[in-house]
Design brief:
- The chain is α+β, with helices and mostly antiparallel strands.
- Helices cover 36% and strands 22% of the residues.
- A 4-stranded mixed beta sheet has the order 3-2-1-4, covered by helices on one side.
- Strand 2, helix 3 and strand 3 form a beta-alpha-beta unit.
Length: 104
């Protein structure tokens, strides 16, 4: 497994608190050895508690994305794992990653 980037490691508790407040069940940072989704920015894979209302789902996503931007101070990709339908897009999830948060 790759070493956790400094900007993530320094703020791990804040990231975990953000997840706990926003119904996140899982947050993963893809490692450097994983194929990139969007170039040179970090790729986070997230999963939320089930919710039927698309507005609530959208608000949760937005709060987590904006919160991560504020915490780590750099652009990022936030991918919802359950929304990935293309198997070629699921492939990077099999590579090295850092489990940052898992709901209890």
């Amino acid at each position: 497994m790759d070493k956790l980037p400094k900007e993530i490691g320094e703020h791990l508790e804040a990231i975990r608190a953000l997840c706990a407040r926003n119904a996140v069940t899982k947050l993963v940072l893809l490692g450097e050895s994983a194929p990139r989704f969007g170039g040179d920015v970090p790729d986070f894979v997230v999963e939320f508690e089930p919710e039927d209302d698309p507005l609530i789902r959208g608000r949760r996503y937005d709060k987590v994305w904006r919160g991560l931007l504020d915490i780590i101070g750099t652009d990022l990709n936030l991918i919802v794992e359950s929304e990935i339908e293309n198997p070629f897009r699921q492939h990077p999830l099999e590579f090295a990653h850092h489990d940052l948060y898992a709901a209890q």
